[in-house]
Each structure stands twice: as structure tokens, then as C-alpha cells.
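Replying to the earlier thread about multi-chain prediction with a worked example.

Input:
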Amino acid sequence: MKQKEIKQKDNLDQQEKPVAKKIKKNEANPAEEYEVVETMLTADFYKAGVVELAQKLIGKIIVRQLPQGEVRAIIVETEAYKAPEDKACHAYNNKKTDRTKYFWQDGGHLYVYSIYGNNYCLNITAATKDDPEAVLIRAVQPLSFDIIKEIRKTKSTKVQDLSNGPGKCGGCLLLDKSHNGLNLCDQKSGMYLIDNKKQYEIGVSARINIDYAEEWKDKPWRFYVKNNSFVSKG
DNA sequence: GTTGGGATTATCT
DNA sequence: GATAATCCCAACG
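Result:
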């Protein structure tokens, strides 16, 4: 149904288009009232403990510069992973491998891991380099719609399928393991977060698909925007 | 060098 | 909602 609006105009006149207005046409629950602050979030923001940071990240806007243009999306779902004690965390018990070593960075860096083939999941480190903690970005709401559609190449007619899952978020942003360690506070990275003053109603639940984590699987460390259709199914 | 499973997704019925 | 796909990665030898 909405597919027609999605696939129209792949190029041409794509300058000066009001992004929020575009979303409004395509999504039943648009973020049309969001209030961007066009300043890169700095290292102080990411110094918070991982559970606090997971909450603070809800509503923030990810910006990534690509050859195709600038990708923007609102974070609508996160999960906190906190080693060494958290059995769900890849760095549980301070397990440090080639994959997990990126946990040991100051807050505001990326940890990207691959899973089930060509899926790359995006994490943002919290606290300091001595704290192996990171926030998994499980879902975002696209703002720069045309570019994301072009990048993701999904055949689905549901706009939500562009970004309602952790692997899909990595796909939207064209991330892979080469982006491990990227600094979100460094202007040269071409990727950063900006603030959004809109207040969202935030839901809390246990984390998803970590049944192996025993007593840690029930921790209320998942946060999401209530009534937002881009939140993952779980 | 081989193996087994995963913080998932796409594509069916 | 069920299942196949798909490949990286860590844990063995």
C-alpha cells in the first residue's frame, strides 16, 4: 500500500527536502514532533553506566555520512549488556577475544559483531575503558528514508522491516566489523549522535533471546519507545 | 583445520 | 508461526 510512496523518486530533487515531512507520509506513528539539536553528543554523554546509557539513548538520532548521502534514524529500542557479571554479555567474566576486545574502550565507541551470516549488530560502549559494557541498538526509526531504502534492498512492503531489528539497524547504517572501535565523538569518524528534545514514553522489559543467561535473562535492561511500530517483535 | 552454535532475518505456508 | 539460510567466531584438537 505505502510501497508506492516508498519507491518513488530514487534521485532527482533530493536537496532541501524536509525529512520529517517525508516520514509523516509513510508511517502511522511518525516522529514529526521531534526536536533536533544539531550538535554532536560528546564523550561526557557516554560516561554513564550502561543501564542508564541504554535509557538515555532512546530518542537520540544516529547520523552517518555515506557516499550515498547522510543517513539519519531515531533510536527506539536498546538493551544493556554489562560484563563481567552479566552472563548474557559477550564479555562475560572478562572474556577478551578478537571479537570482544572492543568492549574495553571508553564510552562512545562502537562494538559491531556478526551473527547468523550477514547480520551485523551495533553496540555503543558505556562508561570507561575499564568497564566492559555496551548498549545494543535493537531498532531505529528511519528519517532519511530514501537512502535507507536504497541501502537495505528489502523486498518487504512494510516500512517497519527496514529497521525493526538489530541486524537491520546495522544494515541501515551499512556497518560491518570494519567499524569496530569507531569513535562517535570524533568528527572525522563521519558517524555521531545528536540530541532530540522530544520526550518519549519509554517501556521497560527483559532482554530478548538470551535464554542461556540463567539468572541474568530476566534483568529489566531492555528499553523502547512505547507504541512505536519500529520496535522489534522480539 | 574442523566443528558447532548464535544478542537474526527472509521467505515461505 | 515455522523453518531454512548463512558465516563468523570461539573452542577444541
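Chain A has five helices and nine strands.

Feel free to reuse this layout for your own posts.
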